[in-house]
Design brief:
By secondary structure, this protein is mainly alpha-helical. It has 8 helices and no strands.
Length: 162
């Protein structure tokens, strides 16, 4: 279950290889080094192939990711979270929430935090508190800070942090 188009390290590598190949080519031309020019062609071809490969991949199917995440596939859980964050950035908070809830069911601590952030944006800090608390109890460092004395969810300092 690989990342969808525009995701993953190979797309960035493809876009890196193109200008790097250009720089290598120019260096080879100026220095008269045929080996550098040959290497630049290899970099250009690899860069183009990586970009084309990623463009031809089909997007990840959220249903497949959810099933794999429920079975304990950590990559699928990260894939769900990535799709959710993309949906939130694209202005589709309902889709983002549905995907984050699936990742949370699989035990993803970062998704607990992100779901809390989404709920906070929609309904305020008080409504998001259960998600932040769950993330903090599961070890999320930033969520724990909310419950420290003087933190946003613990302003009076009366209770110990989770």
């Amino acid at each position: 279950m690989g990342p969808g188009p525009g995701q993953g390290p190979t797309l960035g590598l493809g876009y890196f290889l193109l200008p790097a190949g250009g720089a290598l080519s120019l260096t080879g031309v100026f220095t008269g080094n045929g080996t550098l020019i040959s290497l630049s062609w290899i970099m250009w071809v690899l860069g183009i192939l990586l970009i084309l490969r990623n463009r031809s991949r089909r997007p990840a199917d959220p249903r497949e990711l959810a099933a794999a995440a429920a079975a304990g596939d950590a990559r699928a859980v990260r894939g769900l979270r990535t799709l959710a964050l993309t949906a939130r950035a694209e202005g589709r908070p309902d889709t983002a929430e549905r995907l984050l809830r699936q990742a949370v069911r699989a035990g993803d601590v970062e998704s607990m935090w992100e779901l809390g952030r989404l709920v906070e944006q929609r309904e305020g800090l008080a409504a998001a508190e259960p998600w932040f608390r769950r993330a903090a109890e599961s070890g999320h460092a930033v969520a724990k800070r909310l419950f420290r004395p003087g933190g946003a969810l613990h302003p009076d300092g009366a209770d110990p942090a989770p």
